[in-house]
Amino acid sequence: xxxxxxxxxxxxxxxxxxxxxxxxxxESRMCAVIPDDFRGLIPRLDVKEGDTVKKGDLLCHxxxxxxxxxxxxxxxxxxEIRRGERRKVEAVIIEKSDNDEVRTFDVSGxxxxxxxxxxxxxxxxxxxxxxxxxxxxxxxxxFVTAFDSAPLAPDFSVILEGKDAYVQRGIDVLASLTSxxxxxxxxxxxxxxxxxxxxxxxxxxxxxGNAGIQAANIKPVNKGETVWMxxxxxxxxxxxxxxxxxxxxxxxxxxxxxxxxAPQYVKCVMGSxxxxxxxxxxxxxxxxxxxxGNVLTGDIVDKTGYLRFPYRQVTVIDEIDNPGEFMGxxxxxxxxxxxxxxxxxxxxxKKSVAxxxxxxxxxxxxxxxxxxxxxxxxxxxxxxxxxSILAFDIEKMEQLGIYEVAPEDxxxxxxxxxxxxxxxxxxxxxxxRLRKEME
Length: 439
Description:
Layout: E1 2-5, E2 23-25, E3 30-33, E4 43-45, E5 52-53, E6 58-62, E7 69-71, E8 76-83, E9 89-96, H1 111-118, E10 125-127, E11 142-145, H2 156-159, H3 164-175, E12 182-186, E13 198-203, H4 211-218, E14 227-231, H5 232-244, E15 250-256, E16 264-269, H6 274-277, E17 288-292, E18 299-301, E19 313-318, H7 371-375, H8 382-391, H9 394-399, H10 411-416, H11 423-438
Parallel strand pairs: 1-13, 2-16, 11-12, 11-14, 12-13, 15-19
Antiparallel strand pairs: 3-9, 4-6, 5-8, 6-7, 8-9, 10-14, 15-16, 17-18, 17-19
Helix pairs in contact: 3-5
């Protein structure tokens, strides 16, 4: 195994991590599939309200690449097609039935067709553009991350317990889809023996667990090249599909955060109700922020919302902890947190903190301070790339590495940004606009 040492990044130590690896099963009567979770998908519905579906049945497909499907995680009745502005499909909500009817896939056919038909293709992303892969383009290489370095992230060994054989089967399936290599990024001490792939050990702080960061430090993406990226949990699902003919829609979720009474792992179905996942386990406080995912890249949901892709973490923190704090930003309290040495909390680097969602300022002009460079372990100039995206200077965007990045790669930069800019939104809009322009 090659060892890659990342010198940049930052581990945000938050209160509310899971300390017990036991898993509690949770039943959810209502589940939802949210098309926006699958970036690049323009959904065309294949069901209507009142339809009965089996687990694995088609719910919608992409308008451009009609073979890309999104399937149902449960068997039951389609209770609601939730629409937004211009009748955009925001969610397909399914009420689970008592009879667990499962669709079985014929895995003896073409591998690509099975992945597309099962809905697992939509769980893979490509570079460039950080969208669902184009089925007509063979990837140069495939990058798999075997750990999550985000704040309070779950341990993959808990999620994948007993699934070693499925992981290897999934790696073999992926290896057959590229003439290049499958790269797997792991932490030191990784327990599995993976064959038919190039395994690299990554040392360093977050975002070391991002597949895009790993690719940038092993074999960067150049203009005209396409690579695929996914996590080891999705690889195990692919392997289980080809071993059993059934898509495994179950998942293990880490319920974390300072406002969770007992942080724990729960086993549920992808797209389960947040209310069922957190039932009785969050503080009785109306001033909460519930996030499906981690605090840096997750989606804000309410108590009536649903678990979002990649379906493995829910975080609950304060919206505003102390709006009337004495002296505000000028407080000398050791509880005040800063990545730099602005407050005395830097004297306790290993101490966990309870942060809220307060912005602590407003948007302002870009301050060229080198902050992004310290948090982004890629061979690009982050601040200059953001400026070129805002100006939509395609030539400069290409020169500065736009084809290598995804919004999640800038999440930590956004957290420390003095300018308070929504960097992930800027990158996402830039990628979407560039894709439309180039294709």
